[in-house]
Design a protein that fits this description.
Layout lengths: L5 H25 L5 H30 L37 H7 L4 H28 L1 H18 L5 H7 L16 E3 L1 H14 L2 H15 L8 E3 L2 H23 L8 H6 L4 H23 L3 H13 L8 H17 L3 H16 L2 H20 L6 H15 L3 H25 L2 H7 L2 H17 L6 H17 L6 H18 L6 H9 L29 H21 L6 H4 L1 H13 L3 H27 L7 H5 L3 H6 L3 H19 L42
Parallel strand pairs: 1-2
Helix pairs in contact: 3-11, 4-5, 7-8, 7-9, 8-9, 8-11, 9-11, 11-12, 11-13, 12-14, 13-14, 13-15, 14-15, 15-16, 15-19, 16-19, 17-18, 17-19, 17-20, 19-20, 19-21, 20-21, 21-23, 22-23, 22-25, 23-26, 23-29, 25-26
């Protein structure tokens, strides 16, 4: 049939749809109508389909919006509030008597008769406002009264100025002494180093409790220095440091001495027994002032050494926090932040306090510590595009230590967390959406898996974690199969490392050789690929496309595959089934070695093949000499146990050397590795003309291009 003309095509386009529509209407008239029952069933089926589709859509939306730390969110709450409305200062006019409530107690606690105090404050403010308005009217009516107030303003300022000096402290035995400031420049009290030394001497030698109150008030002012206006001024930086170091060093011992506790007593029960005694009533405001001020210091100071020292000293006073739940909540929040964002000694000191809090106090506080630590761990993973492997590994190991304090409770949380990881993986396997793949191939997801792998490896021999172990193996296998491409080789190798760790800790065989050989056999370029940037697969999860064509990428694939195979073979090198286990990998390794011509690549692979073949021959020779059958599991488990304990075989030494080189290679790599990013902006054609010397004519003043007249 020939092609229609222009007019025919235009006519068909205009009239053909209407003709077809009329035909469909006529056919519908001759069709039999369905019964009402069938129509109703069809409507119900359609409604069910719509409901199921809506359920699937809501599930997908839930996967997209639900964070990985959701199982811990219910325990990550600050439910304890401070009922005290005090500013934290202690009254220096104190007279402690047994059986009576002291004035500092009233000032610090302030939680009794709160409504009455508020009403009194309101009345006082109203009276002050009335008196102030009267004074303003009197100033306007009588100018002489206004001049009188101005003359006496300087005298009032001089009377308010107080200086702490050496002679005043020695003469008054540590009490406040006022000296007139003739120049009227000091607006508050000035503290000196000698005054602090005198206070400390009086507290140690004469046990002056009122002097200790003055010292705590000065310490409170130092801890809030810069955050709020205070009436105390420090002579210099040395005075500030001397005050802070003196209180941090001696406050805990002084408080224990006032309570009659031993300095070696580290049990909260000893503090609980003193709660109903008169000693506790008198000393409680001093303890609260010291703890509150130190927590404020942790929020203000940025120097890591001072923070680490303050945390170390605060750790000795942990039993006192049992009487102040709000302060304990603040302590957990502050130490979690310093643990996650700090480094070195600061992170270690912070985590030591977390461990002590989780072990000393009730299980509710353990749940609180675990929830906040897990949320901070994932937040640190989520915020890092350039990964600091060393710090994240420390966070992971310390969090495993925290979970190991209560394995059963941690296991319930871990099971819920892994179930959520599995749902996200299932979402990615079914939909293959970009959002799902990005969420799985992220450090947040990977570090969550790494955490629970470490938890299993630490506790599987002492607790029943078999069900949780098999769930983790299935999850990791799913992640490996979801990302087969070469850009995801770092993620696949991390998964292989996790499977190796699980196999080593549990003694269960996990087939990973095929995963490793897939990485080894991938061929991206010829033997003469371009040299690329330095790569380290432990620091990235996904590679840019520009790295795949480099020789560095291929060398890193071979090196990482050899390391993982050595770790896998080392575990089963003394097992009676090692010859069968190594058969297929040897065939594929030999085939790979024959396809390579580069000497450096062939040498390492050939060396591995030779060592594996020697170990196969050795195990095969020993296996031929035994008389038991494969069904005798006890004899199979005791096969070559003496050789395994000695670790003297050549194959063991070879694998150890490979793994030692891998650890050394990882330590020499830069902790923070930034991969090269491909510039996606296309080069635009330059319309500027070229002069006779081959250079573009550019205006050197404003950078604009000039067109050369021809």
């Amino acid at each position: 049939m020939g092609k229609l003309g222009k007019k025919a095509r235009k006519f068909a386009k205009k009239n053909l749809p209407s003709v077809l529509r009329d035909r469909r209407k006529k056919k519908a008239l001759f069709k039999k109508r369905y019964s009402s029952k069938n129509v109703q069933s069809n409507v119900e089926d359609q409604a069910k389909v719509i409901d199921h589709s809506n359920e699937r859509n809501t599930e997908v939306e839930a996967f997209e919006d639900l964070p990985l730390e959701a199982p811990f969110m219910e325990n990550d709450c600050d439910g304890v509030v401070d009922s005290s409305d005090s500013d934290g200062y202690l009254s220096e006019d104190i007279n402690y008597e047994n059986g009576t409530e002291s004035e500092p107690e009233k000032l610090l606690e302030g939680d009794k008769c709160t409504s009455e105090l508020m009403m009194q404050n309101i009345k006082i403010q109203e009276n002050l406002a009335i008196q102030k308005r009267k004074l303003e009217r009197l100033k306007r009516k009588d100018p002489s009264f206004s001049k009188f107030l101005e003359k006496h303003k300087d005298i009032e300022a001089m009377q308010n100025g107080v200086v702490f000096s050496d002679e005043d402290e020695m003469s008054n035995h540590g009490r406040d002494s006022a000296t007139e400031d003739n120049q009227g420049k000091d607006e508050g009290r000035v503290l000196t180093v000698s005054a602090i030394s005198s206070w400390c001497r009086l507290i140690k030698e004469e046990h002056k409790e009122e002097v200790f109150v003055c010292l705590l008030n000065a310490y409170r002012a130092a801890c809030h220095y810069g955050a709020e206006s205070i009436g105390l001024r420090f002579q210099n930086a040395e005075t500030f440091c001397s005050l802070v170091m003196s209180v941090l060093s001696e406050a805990d011992n002084i408080l224990r001495g006032l309570l009659g506790l031993s300095s070696f007593s580290y049990k909260k029960e000893a503090v609980l027994e003193l709660k109903d005694t008169p000693q506790w009533v008198n000393v409680k405001p001093l303890i609260k002032s010291y703890l509150r001020s130190t927590l404020s210091l942790l929020d203000q100071v940025t120097d890591s050494e001072i923070l680490a020292f303050a945390l170390t000293r605060l750790r000795d006073s942990l039993p006192f926090f049992d009487a102040f739940p709000y302060l304990l909540q603040r302590l957990i929040k502050t130490t979690i932040h310093l643990w996650a964002t700090g480094g070195g000694m600061l992170s270690s000191s912070s985590f030591s306090i977390l461990l002590d809090v989780a072990s000393l106090f009730t299980t509710d506080w353990f749940d609180n510590c675990l929830a906040k630590a897990f949320v901070a761990y994932l937040a640190q993973s989520r915020a890092m595009d350039i990964v600091n492997n060393k710090h994240l590994q420390f966070l992971r190991n310390s969090l495993v230590d925290l979970c190991s304090l209560d394995v059963q409770k941690s296991l319930s949380k871990a099971t819920v967390s892994v179930r959520q990881l599995a749902k996200v993986l299932q979402w990615g396997l079914h939909t293959k959406k970009k959002e799902a793949l990005q969420r799985i191939c992220s450090w947040e997801y990977a570090n969550c898996i790494n955490l629970w792998v470490g938890f299993i490896a630490r506790n599987v021999r002492d607790y029943d974690l078999q069900a949780f172990f098999f769930t983790m193996v299935q999850l990791i296998n799913g992640v490996v199969r979801l990302f087969p491409g070469p850009r995801y080789f770092p993620l696949r190798l991390n998964c292989i490392q996790w499977l190796n760790d699980l196999s080593n800790s549990t003694g269960v065989f996990i087939p990973i050789a095929s995963f490793v050989l897939d990485v080894l056999e991938y061929k991206t370029v010829g033997e003469r690929g371009k040299p690329g940037p330095a790569l380290f697969f432990q620091s990235v999860l996904k590679l840019p496309k520009s790295c795949l064509k480099s020789q560095t990428f291929q060398d890193e694939c071979i090196t990482s595959a050899i390391e993982q195979l050595s770790s896998h073979f080392l575990q089963w090198s003394y097992h009676i089934s090692f010859p069968d286990l190594a058969t297929v990998p040897l065939i594929r390794l030999k085939k790979f070695n024959e396809s390579k011509t580069k000497e450096s690549q062939c040498r390492v692979v050939k060396h591995l093949i030779e060592q594996v073949e020697k170990n196969v021959d050795s195990v095969q020779k020993k296996r031929n000499e035994v008389a038991f059958s494969p069904n005798d599991h006890q004899s199979v488990e005791t096969f070559l146990q003496f050789e395994k304990s000695s670790l003297s075989s050549p194959f063991t030494q070879y694998c150890r050397s490979v793994l030692d080189k891998a650890a050394l290679r990882g330590s020499h790599k830069n902790e923070k590795i930034s991969l090269p990013t491909r510039d996606k902006s296309k080069r635009k054609r330059d319309d500027s003309s070229i002069n006779v010397f081959g250079h573009k004519d550019v205006d050197t003043v404003n950078g604009s291009k000039k067109r050369v007249k021809r």
